Amino acid sequence: MKTNAGVADAGNLIITGVVLMLLGDLLFALNDAMGKWLVASFAVGQVLVIRSVGAFIVLGPMILRQGPMALFRVEQKGLQFIRVLMATVDVALFYAAVAYLPLADVMTFYMAGPIYIAALSHFFLGEKIGWRRWLAVLIGFAGVVIALRPSTAMLSLPSLFGLAGSLAFALSLVMSRYLRSTSDTTLVTWQTIAALVTGIVLSVGNWQPATLIDWCGMLLLGIVASCAHLLITRSLKLAPASLLAPLQYTLLLWAIVLGYLFFDDIPDTQIIVGAAIIVVAGLFIFHRKNLKETVPVEAVPPDGH
Question: What distance in Å separates the CA atoms of residue 50 and residue 27, rounded to the nearest whole number?
């Protein structure tokens, strides 16, 4: 009975991790659309600064709750630094790429993230992935390419920003999984501080006046992004990265929904076919993961966040 209860609890943790990842992806889709709108008028550094200030509206109460000194009591400081560096590179390069490329092109690069994560998780986290799931991840990415129809702009220099940013994003997610005993608040706070410092450096000589709506938009960007990071960071503590990675494909689905609701964009046949392939591949990977593995309950830290 105890064994069955343990398996059920582990299964519930995996489901919770999946739900949190899906919610985080939705917020990231909102963040991406807002970010593209803002960097069209303002420098990347300025957006990063105000975005980081907005993030602390969410993080401030959480920092006070766990105690400010807890931010300095972290394990494996070297890996913590690498994770913060990768998260900062990801954000900066994403905004740099989206300032010059269509959002769909940049999203195409980032949809390669699950492939990077699956490979990195296999070699560095010990999460074994069978050939069926490897094939499903590749098929899912093929669906992304079909749906997004990358343009010739991908051959330009900003495309390198998108490629490097997507790799940094994947590395930061793998590091989050590896450092799962560190509280979510600490992980997100340090990457927000790094983004703030980077923004200050990049904004020197590039600061522009803005309207109240613009300031509010940049602050809201930080609030949305920090909530997304918190949700995804927590999800990676509850479920294996190789399972959660393909769920990043839902960013495309949210882009279709938001495009229709806010911009009256109706998906064509190619978009629908690509989205269907992505969903089927993601569901197959989720099914295979449930058959193969569970997450031990004791692996989840009771940090209360």
Answer: 18
CB-side neighbour CA atoms (13 Å) of 233: 28
C-alpha–C-alpha distance, residues 156 and 243, integer Å:
33
Cβ atoms of 163 and 106 within 8 Å: the answer is no
Q: At what angle do helices 269-292 and 2-39 cross, to 10 degrees?
A: 150
Q: Is 126 exposed, middle or buried (0-12, 13-18, 19+ CB in 10 A)?
A: exposed
Dist. CA 23–CA 228, nearest whole Å: 7
Give yes or no for a contact between 115 and 166, defined as CB atoms under 8 angstroms apart.
no
pTM value > 0.85? no
pLDDT at position 51: 93
Say how far apart CA 294 and CA 7 lie, in whole Å. Answer: 7
- Ranking 81-85, 118-122, 208-212 by mean pLDDT, the lowest is 118-122
